[in-house]
Input
Amino acid sequence: MTGVHTGDRCCRIANVFADATIAAISIAGSGSVQPSEVLVENNYIGTTPGGGGAEPNQRGIIVRGFNNRIRNNLISNNLQNAIELDDSLATGNIVEYNTIGLPPPACSGPANRTVMACMAC
Output
């Protein structure tokens, strides 16, 4: 799987990923077949629409693929890691311009247990 895009490139409409039992977003394949060039941008992960309230996920984003980009997301209130780079194949990924672990002023939930975890480093 290559070239998948989650979110709106123009910031007009944001997806909300909330109440997931494993992870809000999982960029993962099977064995040596892993996704690449996935773009996750302009989403609310672990919050209500608009980012004003808490809707926790177990984890925010799990990445096991390579050459993916995670940018311009609000990732907060998750019970474990906000972003988890998990596997020796999780290489070449770019994480940029996200608001991670800092809830908006109106948000009553926890930040994230861990901002980023690199499980295979």
Remarks:
- The two ends are 24 Å apart (CA to CA).
- The chain has a mean pLDDT of 82.
